[in-house]
């Protein structure tokens, strides 16, 4: 499930929050996460919230200007050694000169 919420705007910036749930993504989550980032950027910036769960990244993602990608903390799952959002890298192994898994433009955030 992708939950898009436009939280209003001032004259220069509309703030969009996009929430992704790992349970709704099977396999490579890179495309869905990148689409959410691009949607936020196209609307002037905002936050992509990755709810607690495992997200497999099999392709690079680029965090666009004025977008924050934020994980979640879930202390109830700490006993399973998964205390929130987990990014599983399946990209770039044995490619030291390859594109980075996560790249960030100016004025972005990753929490």
Architecture overview:
The chain is mainly beta and 111 residues long. The protein contains one helix and nine strands, in the order E-E-H-E-E-E-E-E-E-E. The protein has one helix at 30-42; strands at 2-9, 14-20, 46-50, 53-57, 61-63, 67-71, 85-89, 102-104, 109-110. Strands 1-2-3-6-9 form a five-stranded mixed β-sheet, with helices on one face. A two-stranded parallel ribbon has the order 4-7. Strands 5-8 form a two-stranded parallel ribbon. Helix 1 links the parallel strand 2 (14-20) and strand 3 (46-50). The longest helix has 13 residues, at 30-42. The two termini are 21 Å apart.
Span between N and C termini?
21 Å
Helix content: 10-25%
- Give the overall form: globular
Strand content: 35-45%
Number of helices: 1
Major beta sheet, specifics?
Answer: 5 strands, mixed
Order of helices and strands: EEHEEEEEEE
Mean pLDDT across every amino acid position: 79
User: Runs with pLDDT <50, length 5+?
Assistant: 8-14
């Amino acid at each position: 499930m992708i939950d898009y919420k436009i939280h209003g705007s001032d004259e220069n910036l509309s703030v969009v929050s996009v929430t992704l749930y790992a349970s709704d993504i099977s396999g490579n989550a890179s495309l869905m996460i990148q689409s959410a980032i691009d949607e936020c950027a196209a609307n002037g910036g905002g936050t992509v919230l990755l709810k607690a769960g495992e997200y497999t990244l099999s392709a690079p993602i680029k965090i666009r200007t004025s977008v924050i990608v934020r994980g979640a903390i879930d202390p109830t799952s700490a006993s399973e050694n998964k205390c929130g959002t987990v990014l599983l890298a399946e990209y770039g192994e044995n490619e030291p000169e390859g594109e980075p898994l996560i790249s960030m433009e100016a004025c972005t955030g990753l929490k």
